[in-house]
């Protein structure tokens, strides 16, 4: 009996088989490449999403998580916004107010490529203690407690910004968080600088420090301090061009010695070096656009050596607390590049 022949394979069926096989191979290759790219991205991190991390440790794949050791090049704003929005829970972060008044990421108002934080101050808002909340407040411990620290950020005010009498800007803090509104921050009346003492104060020993900046009318700037007044060197109160020791609240140091840009970014740098206890040798330095505008080296920040600098005090609002400080209209500021370090950057030392 003759053998049965296998069915003939046509050219078209051969082509179909080859095409299907090639498609499967291509699909496998694409899957492998995609997996490799995803792994590489997860390992290196996307600089537009993740803060800068130490070179010897890959970042977390969670954009709301910072490394244990924060480098001077680490932008804290993306992480801080996560905490403000309750997208993460970091014990080193303490929220104050303003969650509803922020937009992030927001386009750079001058057309740059940076992601920026936009902050709203609603009309008539003032010091948050009043209940008419505007701006943003939080503090964060991102340094080992130290005797020296440097904070830097950039802030933008629009050309049409209504400065009114003034408002608060971020700075550093240490000790207990009791700086806002002057609470527990004014020392008793002394014969050197007699000042009326507000009620409910238990100011000795000084347990807080919150050196920061304020804007004033017509874009003027100043350093703003809560310090034990009776301990200060007399030249503090003579610091040019004008220094004002408010009877109830903080000290306006060097008012009008610099200005913030309107319609452009202003880079702010603040360095604080704590005094030795029983010595008038604390340091305050301020730079505006890398130009030193405040330099005072006889400050008394503390009366206890247990008080250390802990981190960023991000407070921004219209005020003061008195009439005339309220936001005249819905107003906005913009922030970017928030950094903290344990030393002054080399670029400022070399100048």
Give the gist of this structure.
The protein is α+β, with helices and mostly antiparallel strands and 351 residues long.
> Could you tell me the mean pLDDT?
81
The CATH architecture can be named as: Sandwich
Give the H and E element order: HHEEEEEEEEEEEEEEEEEH
Shape: globular
Overall number of strands:
17
- Write out the strand line-up for the largest beta sheet, numbering strands in chain order: 2-3-17-5-13-14-15
Low-confidence stretches: 36-61, 181-205
Secondary structure: helix percent: 10-25%
What amount of the residues lies in strands? 25-35%
Radius of gyration: 28 Å
CATH topological fold name: Jelly Rolls
Distance between the termini: 104 Å
Protein name: Polysaccharide lyase 14 domain-containing protein
Organism: Jimgerdemannia flammicorona
Transmembrane segments: 20-43
Keywords: Membrane, Transmembrane, Transmembrane helix
């Amino acid at each position: 009996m003759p053998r049965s022949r296998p069915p003939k394979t046509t050219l078209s069926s051969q082509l179909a088989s080859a095409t299907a096989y090639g498609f499967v191979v291509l699909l496998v290759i694409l899957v492998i490449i995609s997996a490799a790219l995803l792994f590489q991205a997860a390992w290196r991190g996307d600089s537009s999403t993740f803060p800068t991390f130490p070179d010897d440790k890959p970042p977390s794949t969670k954009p709301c998580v910072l490394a244990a050791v924060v480098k001077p090049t680490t932008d804290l704003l993306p992480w801080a916004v996560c905490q403000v929005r309750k997208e993460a829970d970091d014990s080193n972060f303490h929220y104050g107010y303003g969650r509803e008044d922020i937009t992030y990421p927001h386009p750079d108002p001058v057309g740059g490529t940076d992601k920026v934080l936009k902050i709203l101050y609603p009309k008539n808002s003032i010091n948050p203690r009043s209940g008419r909340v505007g701006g943003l407040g939080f503090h964060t411990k991102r340094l080992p407690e130290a005797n020296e620290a440097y904070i830097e950020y950039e802030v933008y005010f629009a050309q049409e910004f209504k400065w009114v009498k003034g408002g608060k800007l971020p700075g550093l803090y240490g000790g207990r968080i009791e700086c806002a509104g002057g609470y527990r921050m004014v020392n008793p009346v002394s014969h050197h600088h007699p000042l009326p003492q507000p009620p409910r104060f238990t100011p000795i020993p000084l347990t807080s420090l919150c050196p920061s900046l304020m804007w004033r009318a017509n874009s003027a700037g100043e350093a703003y301090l809560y310090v034990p007044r009776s301990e200060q060197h007399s030249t503090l109160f003579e610091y040019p061009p004008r220094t004002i020791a408010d009877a109830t609240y903080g000290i306006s140091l060097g008012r009008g010695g610099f200005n913030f840009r309107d319609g452009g970014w202003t880079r702010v740098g603040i360095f604080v070096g704590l005094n030795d206890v029983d010595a008038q040798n604390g340091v305050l330095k301020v730079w505006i656009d890398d130009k030193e505008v405040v330099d005072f080296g006889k400050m008394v920040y503390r009366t206890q050596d247990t008080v250390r600098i802990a981190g960023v005090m991000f407070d921004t609002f219209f005020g003061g607390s008195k009439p005339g400080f309220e936001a005249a209209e819905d107003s906005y500021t913009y922030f970017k590049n928030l950094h903290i370090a344990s030393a002054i950057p080399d670029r400022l030392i070399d100048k």
